[in-house]
Amino acid sequence: MKNHFPHILPDNASRRAFLKRSAALSVAASATPWAMSLAAMGEAAAATATDYKALVCVFLYGGNDYASTLVAYDQPSYDAYASFRPNLAISRTSLAGTVLNPTVPLASGRQFALAPGLAPLVPIFDAQQMAVLLNIGTLVEPTTKAQYTAKSVQLPPKLFSHNDQQSFWQSSSPEGAASGWGGRMGDLYASGNGNATFTCISAAGNAVYLAGNTAVQYQVTTNGSVPVNGIQSALFGSTACSAALADLMTQPRAHLLENEYARVAKRSIDANGQLTSALAGVTLATQFPTPNSLADQLKIVARMIGARSALGAKRQVFFVSLGGFDTHDGLVTQHPTLMTNLGNALASFQQAMQELGVADAVTTFTGSDFGRTLVGNNDGSDHGWGNMQFVLGGAVKGKSFVGTAPVLANNGPDDVGQGRLLPSTSVDQFAGTLATWFGVSQTDQDMVLPHLSHFTTRNLGFMA
């Protein structure tokens, strides 16, 4: 029987072992859905690291408009771009200062410029610390337009759906996924960190990207950890009351669920104390822009990276986000502000990495639900598929474009209608390249990225 849900198991996972574990847990699973996640424990062997590396995912929620982010600049391409969005096109003259000149020029004289608001990223690109991925998106396997039309290959579930494509981008599975590829990388390295709690860290709330099979994402605010108020400060003015509350919350219990709650509470209280102490020793001269919610998130990430030694961290995976990209309308008024906030935040973060002396050890990359249509709807653009993404860091083979520039056309050879790009590069290939740099072996990559083995090119070559 054909497996219509290949995302449930990695390609090389033992189905016999999985079924055996599932049978053993079936009774518990019927009452406690979380029990099934125990079956995944032990799938991947722990990895060791002696140096420090971090990945920082910057997710743009809503589906970023690719054509207003990386704008066609050579005259023929610009003319085509402008013809499809007469009310939305950025003027060519305003792009003159953000034209990207890669070390290896694109074929046929193609040129691109960043949106004017992303001007702070141009020096980073020119310093060979930033690369641009052309036409990347969610794929299960290599897909041509003919195959897409004939429905002869497996496609990501519920294309053009926000929730499902956000999940598939972050986890290789549709909405409801139990783990993401960032968290699964965290599974490999958590035991090698001084405190496993500080392996997968989100400054943007819960994200499936950071959920592991064993690694648990640790959420922070832009000011640091989230304390238990009655323990952080004296309860009713009494330190004795605070101590009693802490004891009540953390003492072992006979009941399985009560004991698990106490264990999690203790981990949270202990982590708060350790992180607060570690951050107290970190000061940054880099100025992050305000008001800018993304910059605020990246600033706490930078401070935590600065505290890496105090936290005993060797490998860390971070997640931050910026919303507002579902620009069905108001693209001309809303998107420029989003680009300015993104450009300023990324540039400040990269400067902070230089200040901390870890620019070569920290790689930052963008992601989004999907791209949007090239053809405008008068005031905005609609849900698409392929998109343009950035990757920044000292280990990036920068001043480069990765992939092939798509033809800008409505229902052209590189799109499936209205300028919805058919991705030529998969998120799995992108993630696999990052995973290789992070130190994840090819065998473990097949566990972390269940669709990667479907692609001949596993490493896109943009990392040193």
Automatic annotation (TrEMBL):
It comes from the Bacteria. Pfam families: DUF1501. This is DUF1501 domain-containing protein. It comes from Caenimonas koreensis DSM 17982.
